[in-house]
Amino acid sequence: MTQVTVNLTDTFEDWRVKTNQICANQGDIATLTTITQASLVAAINEIDATSGLGNVVEDTSPELGANLDVLDKSIITSTTNGNITITPDGSGKIVLDGQSFPNADGTAGQVLSTNGSAVISYVPVITEIIDTATANQTDWGVAELPNGYVVGRIAVFLNGVKLLNGSDFTATNGVDVQLTTGAALNDKIEFQIFA
């Protein structure tokens, strides 16, 4: 705001114009007296009913001073087939009912998956890991399956032949896989881990 100089010889009208140039005169300067509180307040405040916002849409950068409570209403758009965009700042995430969503898109073919602790991320539908067995190898663990698996969501193949869970192999703890019979040297073991 620019500095305004009010002279001792200025009238009230001079002062009003110098200090509040954007508003029209709403007070009654002609009848202003110190005992008429209403006219004094109206003259000093210079409230111009047309300078405020008539509709929220007129505020091009609105900010909330507290939480937004929509009561029993909805957040909608009146634009035909319009999107409702929610964009957090920087690395912030959208947290919907306690679930933290990723702030970037995944790659083609990925799906949303939860870690069971309110964090949602994009993961491949199937992760495929192929390993070459040592002689009589029966166990595969963290070294071969670094991200583990969800129990019941893993398939195991030996040289391209699918093994049966519970009879040809066991996978019960989300970390290790054990073959019932040891693999031969250089056998190919394939793990398909489902999201």
**Separation of termini?**
60 Å
State mean pLDDT (0 to 100 scale): 81
Oligomer: single chain
Structural class: mainly beta
Helix/strand order, N-terminal first: HHEEEEEEEEEEE
| Major β-sheet strand ordering | 5-11-7-8
What is the general shape?
Answer: rod-shaped
List low-pLDDT spans.
Answer: none
Strand content: 15-25%
Query: Compute the gyration radius: what is it?
Result: 36 Å
**What is the overall number of helices?**
2
Describe this protein's structure.
The chain is mainly β. Helices cover 9% and strands 25% of the residues. The strands form four sheets. Strands 5-11-7-8 form a four-stranded antiparallel β-sheet, with no helix packed on it. It has a three-stranded antiparallel β-sheet with strand order 6-10-9, with no helix packed on it. It has a two-stranded antiparallel ribbon with strand order 1-2. A hairpin with a 2-residue loop joins strand 7 and strand 8. The longest helix is centred in the N-terminal third of the chain and has 9 residues, at 37-45. The chain is rod-shaped, with a radius of gyration of 36 Å. The two termini are 60 Å apart. The model has no long low-confidence stretch (mean pLDDT 81).
Quick overview:
By secondary structure, the chain is mainly β.
